[in-house]
Amino acid sequence: MATTASTVDLQSGSDARKTAALSPARLIGRRFLRNRLAIGGSLVMILLYMSALFADFLAPVPFTDVHEDYVFVPPQLPRFLDEQGNFHLRPFVYGLDSKIDMDTFRWVHDEDFETIYPIYLFVKGYEYKLFGLIPFDRHLYGVEEPGVFYLFGSDDLGHDMVARVFMGARISLTIGLLGVILTIIFGASLGTISGYYGGALDTLIQRVIEFLMSFPAIPLWAALAAAMPPTWSPLQRFFAISVILSLIQWTGLARQVRAKVLSYREMEYSLAARAAGASDFRIIFRHMLPNAFSHIIVVATLAIPGMILAETALSFLGLGIQPPQTSWGALLKQAQLVSVLLQQPWLLIPAFFVIAAVLTFNFVGDGLRDAVDPYSL
Hints:
MetI-like fold, two-stranded antiparallel ribbon, alpha+beta, elongated
């Protein structure tokens, strides 16, 4: 028994020495890989951003195409069995017989069981630029004309919801990243300056932070978004909304970085660097920010869901992305009526993408927060 216990102690001591010999980056990576929720969230996050990158490839038709005869078409699921019970190797959808119900004045779409449209993969369609550079006309799936295939259904103008959801992902997910980048720049810079130099400069920056934090977020964002000129292009509006979303978010990060820098400023390595004649620039960028970088990354990762939800709220209120561009919030604006929820529940599909994006970023952020302390159990 004593031999076995000593062997276990030697093995654990050897593992501890190996762990201690690893670099901090490898320790963080090893601990992050142990978190299954974080790994799962990372995979889903990659899928979401890949779907946004290849939105044109995934969309069978342009997201701006209007089909007046196919308004509020319910989602069409691929079929393998027809009404006679015959099995088809290639999935298909039936044609649609669309007409207006004269009692309710709503479009009714009945399946035409005499007409079958096979679903093909990697079909030719409208031309677009892959990665914004390469002319391309292939799409993931499609049916031959005059057939239509609405996998997620259609909206009040006959737009294909698949195309709208994935094109909307480009705006919603990119605004989150761009807003967080601006938040890191403002928060890390001003927080470091405030904590390192102190004095009157620290007081001024902290009072500005308190002034900005005293405003309620949604009314302030709404006022700034409403003040944007209506003549701005969608690209200009996109960047303006990103700046608006990061206007208040940086204040929390600045205070956290300031607290970190205040503690680092009194550490032995900072005092030694100052005694050796190192410049403030070198001390900040060589000793302060690298130590606070892991914390900044964690805070930024956890802030992205807030950016996505804020953009969704602005677009839902009609103050964010405007037509012809679309986003998840703009799509959810159509689902704010109870009648729509009861009669066209598929218009809530973008909400599930918002939930998935927020959850995955939270899982990844929690995993990073645990991983930055690589020596904890």
